[in-house]
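hiii, so i know i said id send this last week but things got crazy w the move. better late than never?? heres the sequnce for the chain we talked about at the cafe, plus the structure i predicted for it. fair warning i was half asleep when i ran it
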Amino acid sequence: MIEGLAAIYIFMLAGFTGYEIISKVPVILHTPLMSGSNFVHGIVLVGAMVALGIAETTAQQAIGFIAVLLGAGNAVGGYVVTERMLEMFRPSDKKEKGEDS
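okay and structure toks below
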């Protein structure tokens, strides 16, 4: 029972700390910060898959499955945002050819 409470406490503390840190980041840095942390999303996904793999009860399996879904969505979303950010810095074809819009 104490181990479960410690895990919940650590989870809540990590969530609060993450929220406080990210809320203080200027808006212009959110996208580079996300693209730079995509590797962390991959590690979270691997951890969720390991947790799902060792799950024994139905509740543990359900939580592990949800963790894998959310981790995968987070990783894919990070790469999509990175691609959109990089697209802003690519020159458009019309500007290179000298055509007017």
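btw The mean pLDDT is 80. thought thatd interest u
miss u guys!!
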